[in-house]
TrEMBL record:
Keywords: Pyridoxal phosphate. This is TDP-4-keto-6-deoxy-D-glucose transaminase. It comes from the Bacteria. NCBIfam families: ECA_wecE, PRK11706.1. The modification N6-(pyridoxal phosphate)lysine is found at K181. One of its GO terms (biological process) is polysaccharide biosynthetic process. Belongs to the DegT/DnrJ/EryC1 family.
Length: 376
């Protein structure tokens, strides 16, 4: 069976994980975490970057930093992973969904303003497939209404919008290092990106169980104590060491993924010209990271048939998000503002093809041929 995903592995990870195993410190914020934090601050040009045990927890930290009160509203797309909404629902916020654009599957920047009320506090954008949302109009809108912008850039490491790195554009950003993402810290992991310096110190406190332990270690206070709410958001050094192996190969991983993406894209051009499928769209000013390769079939029935055709050929392709507003918890914690013109209809057409770092050309070709045989 050709799997849908394989966790990224470069061969560099073993030496660092072993070093972490043998060091005197395996708990959080050791040498590999420090190195990673430094790497991200340099690469993203952000104020602070803090590793977390998962992308979900980075989003939870962002939600705590916003100091939301019950009933406050947070605007986001419904076509996203459950954690995007859950992190804010956990703080008592009401989730307000708006429709997506059919071309990028990202939140439609033109529909956000109409969903803003006196209770709106933040806009959470999701850069689907590592392709950026329209950040300039969204930031301008947020500025006009005094709202914060949180980037769920879980899929967006190495991608840019007008030259700026995703996750480092809004007030706060989150990456995921889950094994299905472009870079992993050993299966699970994440990163909180702080771009607004006003959040930097409190982010460290929330991450350290609500204590000012980081300040103590830097010699800025003479003892540490409980100063705020918080939780345990430090990954183990084993996670950080695995990630460090991948960061040393960051450009190579990105290059390889883009090569696979471009090969898929070229191979399906004819099907798109014939009007049989729709290929992913990347706006001119966005550089993506080859996070996934998705096609849209005509409708749900055709997608179901295509997935079965691939499965019969031992290829595991998968669909993606079931819109959150139609889920059980979605009905309780959210509302959909405006018309669901594209969210449900477009999500039902989409399939994701097998994709991983260092995928062989033979496997890729088998996937390509099998999709073509379905349409011929
Ligand atoms: C993967 C993902 C997350 C969650 O990340 P975890 O590391 O699995 O907790 C959140 N949002 C989006 C859009 C994702 O793709």
């Amino acid at each position: 069976m050709i799997p849908f995903n394989r966790p990224p592995y470069t061969g560099q990870e073993d030496q660092y994980v072993q070093a972490a195993m043998r060091s005197a410190k395996m708990s959080g914020d050791g040498a590999f975490t420090e190195r990673s934090h430094h790497w991200f601050r340099e690469q993203l040009k952000c104020d602070s970057a803090l590793l977390t045990p998962s992308g979900t927890q980075a989003l939870e930290m962002a939600a705590i930093l916003l100091d939301l009160e019950p009933g406050d509203e947070v605007i986001m797309p419904s076509y996203t992973f459950v954690s995007t909404a859950n992190a804010f629902a956990l703080r008592g916020a009401q989730i307000v969904f708006v429709d997506i654009r059919p071309d990028t599957m990202n939140i439609d920047e033109n529909l956000i303003e109409a969903a803003i009320t006196a209770k709106t506090r933040a806009i959470v954008v999701v850069h689907y497939a590592g392709v950026s949302c329209e950040m300039d109009p969204i930031l301008a809108l947020a500025e006009r209404h005094g709202l914060k912008v949180i980037e769920d850039a879980a899929q967006g490491m190495m991608s840019t919008y007008k030259g700026r790195r995703l996750g480092a554009i809004g007030h706060l950003g989150a990456y995921s290092f889950h094994e299905t993402k472009n870079y992993t810290s050993g299966g699970e992991g994440g990163l909180l990106i702080v771009n607004d310096p006003r959040y930097a110190q409190r982010a460290e406190i929330i991450r350290e169980k609500g204590t000012n332990r980081s300040l103590f270690f830097r010699g800025m206070v003479d003892k540490y104590s409980w100063v705020d709410i918080g939780s345990s958001y430090l990954p183990s050094e084993l996670q950080a060491a695995y990630l460090w192996g991948q960061l040393t190969m960051a450009d190579e991983i990105n290059r390889d993924r883009l090569a696979t993406w471009n090969a898929y894209h070229a191979a399906f051009a004819d099907l798109e010209t014939s009007g049989l499928v729709v290929r992913p769209h990347v706006p001119e000013h966005c550089k993506h990271n080859g996070h996934m390769y998705q096609l849209k079939a005509k409708n749900l029935a055709e997608r179901t048939a295509l997935l079965k055709h691939l499965k019969d050929a031992d290829i595991l392709a998968v669909f993606h998000y079931v819109p959150l507003h139609s889920a059980t918890a979605g009905r309780k914690y959210s509302r959909f503002h405006g018309e669901d013109r594209y969210t449900t209809a477009e999500s039902e057409r989409l399939i994701r093809l097998p994709f991983w770092y260092s995928m062989s050309p033979e496997i890729r070709q088998k996937v390509i041929d099998t999709v073509h045989s379905f349409y011929s």
